[in-house]
Amino acid sequence: MSWIDRLTFDARGLLPVVAQDARTGEVLMLAWANAQALRLTLETGRAHYWSRSRGELWAKGQTSGNTQEIVDVRVDCDADAVLYRVRQSGPACHTGERSCFHRLADGSDGSWGDAPDPRPMLARLEDIIAARDAERPEGSYTAYLFAQGIDKILKKVGEEATETVIAAKNGDNAELRAEAADLLFHLMVLWRARGLDAAEVWDELDRRFGQAPRPGSAEGRPSRAGDGT
Fold first, then answer.
1. What does R_g of the chain's alpha carbons equal in angstroms?
2. Which single residue of 6, 25, 67, 75 could bond 61 by disulfide (Cβ 3.0 to 4.6 Å)?
3. d(C-alpha 107, C-alpha 211), whole Å
């Protein structure tokens, strides 16, 4: 018996599926799946669903090209709902929005507003930096750094690191906050310039600190080898 056989489907043989961006944690969409859709998802590594309106199976992105590559599939505590953690290509919503949940129910008159971007700040910053690099808009400081090249970026990283140290020594947390933000920004520009995906840095940190330390290990003391952290 597979785990799919242990799920609780409704009278139509369906259950709800939430799709979540594995990189940012953002909820992208809610759809439905039957057992066959789940099996196809596992077999192909691409998100498959069941269309209630058309009465047929469909693969996300089969017409739009906005595919969902499966990272893993998770089951809720009652085994009657499923979570797809995915790598989303393009917008998830048919309206062209990044997420189907882009409207905020905040109006006392029953109206909807635009929901703020729920992604973590570093994920949003990564996308902004990538866009500045690709588009090179006039007047953009980020675009200027990319145009000046790696040596200029390295110089700025060094300057911001020094200023962060000075701010910490001065005991002024407002100054430290500002300098630390500058340092993080320039580090992320450097990663982009060197072709290092920020996800690789997060994966490295997760490799060091994401698992419970083994008995006798020195927690909190990073090691390049990844052992003894």
1. 22
2. 67
3. 43
Tell me how far apart the alpha carbons of residues 34 and 10 are, in angstroms, rounded to a whole number.
9
> Residue 34: CB partners within 8 Å, gap ≥ 6?
9, 13, 14, 15, 50, 57
In SS3 terms, 178-194 reads as: HHHHHHHHHHHHHHHHC
What does pTM read for this prediction?
0.69
β-pairing, 82-88 vs 113-114, is unpaired
86 forms beta bridges with 21, 70
Tokens representing 171 are 């005991």
| Each residue's pLDDT tens digit, 2-57 | 999 999 999 999 999 999 999 889 999 999 999 999 999 999 999 999 999 999 99
Helix (H, G, I), strand (E, B) or coil at 45: coil
Q: Which residues neighbour 18 within 8 Å (Cβ) at sequence distance 6 or greater? A: 27, 29, 30, 81, 82, 83, 84
In contact, 192 and 130? CB cutoff 8 Å: yes
Q: How far is CA 70 from the centre of its chain?
A: 13
